[in-house]
Design a protein that fits this description.
alpha/beta; six-stranded antiparallel barrel; 47% helix; single chain
Length: 669
Amino acid sequence: VLGISQPDPSAAQQQTFSVDGASGAGSSSSSSTTGLATPGSSNSSAAASRSGSQVLPSAAAAVNSRNVFQQPAVLGVCLKPRPCVMFSVQLPNSHRAKRLKTKQERLDFWKEYGHGTLPSDALVCLAAPGQPLVFATVVRRDVKELAEEQPMIGLAFEPGQDVERMISLMGQGPLPNTVLVQVSTNFLSTRPVLQCLQQMSSVPLAEEIVDGKLTHPTSYLNKEGLDQDLAGLAPSLDSSQHTALTSALNHRVALIQGPPGTGKTFIGVNLCELILKHSTEKILCVCYTNHALDQFLEALLNKGIKDIVRIGSRSKSKRLEQYNLRELASNSRAQTLNSAESRRMGVVYSDIESTEKRLQQLADMLTITAGPLEIGSDGRVYSKVAGSGNSSTSSPAAAAAAKANQVWQQRSKELVEEQEKASKARQEAAAARRAGSTPAKRPLSPDQDQQQRKEGPSFDEWEDAIGPFLEGERPAVWEQLLVPSEMTRTARNYLWTCWLKGFRNKGAVDRFTMAKEAQAAAARSGGWQQAKKGTQAPLRMAEPSAAVSAAAAKLAARQPVDLEDQDVLDELFENIWSLPPNVRHYLAQHWRGQLRSDWSAEMDDLMQTAYKLQQELKALHDSSYEAVLQSARVIGCTTTGAALQKDLLRRTAPGVVMVEEAGEILEAH
């Protein structure tokens, strides 16, 4: 292992932020305590650190803190780059992007300057008074979505109740008395490494690194010709550089350090060239930052070393694009995957797409059924998204969250369309490879594309949700809301709408039934005048029972009705058309709550399924990745990339590890 480093006493300092109640600003600190502001708390409480200390900020301090984001609202879910729950947040008052008026201005800002705000892989938590902290990581950070009036980010939670609870709040506006706190800006850079350390049964090179013993000499170099090459380099090296290079070639572990400009990277590049020339070993070059990695690999290219593979997609070097692992693997995948693996990859892609469509459908259903009931101008029953009403009844925060919901719904449809286009392109490419031709692109026409964007979620509450639910759980209620099959011109949700409007009879259905009965009676008696008279008879109004009136009185007094009491349910459901409007809406919201709970649980399961499918897809890709890495002599990656790809690198088995800019690396690495 070669470490090429520059001592940097500030590199080991880890910065956290606490909310200072006195100054009202986020202050940096090197302590291990992070204060979490929770506005709305009666005692201005904050989360305590493990040591038991507390920071007691004011709500005003939280509003101004650069790490505390107000009014988080759940918008939906997304599978890219990995399954996550989408949130909208309000930026702190001091944030520059909040003062920008146009979307283009905000987009330019996030592209150039906003890298420190909710960056990818940051650790965040949701904090509310009296509630346990809920931690997550930022896994989706798209500058287009951040540039909206309410910035949108994707958070990944650990599977379980936290995910299910967050999903159940979809479309309900800002979470009450809750803030989103950015705890760490680069959580992913340490988490995979720490997970690797947990799985280690022994320490490599323990004699040198742990016990401090003298290092063993190298055994993998072919000494023939090495001295001659060293002599050829001597004129370009000073004495210390020559000593460092010779020591690294002759010892199993070497450390080269020095101030900036002393030629550490220059020595590393020459060392890499000599090892490649005089051995058969593969070299793993590891750097803490993507910038340092790009510089080192470009220096190798300048030396004519092109047998390079770079792991990771965050390179900004144009010269290294063709050496990216994903790019190289995509070009060779058809040759590295066997027929069974290719078929399985197609099945996995198809399963992911169907999972994504079902998730989108459930998200639409959760959003549509999130708010209070209302009857639309077309007579259908809708659930108003929290905050979508007029300004006299909706807070600005709720209205902003409702607008963010609409933006995300449109954005999610665009993502689904992109997925479908990508799937179609893969199928055409596969067919073209089998036929030996190049697939022709057939993009949607402008009219078709515009039509797809106009189409909203296809969801009817009665037919898609309440009806099937009542048929299985409350068949007696379902039968009272069922439109007769003979009424082919009547909407299936007609009785459900009439019931929610407060009708005390079935309207057209009762008239149809009475006419049908009268015609049957007239047919038996042979007289049609009696049938005509029967159809004009007034409809009977259902009258509430004493138990129903008592339930309505309790609800009017803002007291709950026990829907677990079977006697109460029997009274309420004996004739649901006798129920007062407040009882009907109470029951409808109760049924919706049960459905939303089921949908949330299903979405949680689907997100876990999608993650497993993505992992399987990654494993299939890894087989082509492994073939590319096995053929390379130099593999470059960051410390985080090495931890994330530990299994792949372990199978590749590089014999030499070179650490560039080792002084930047934190203790956890």
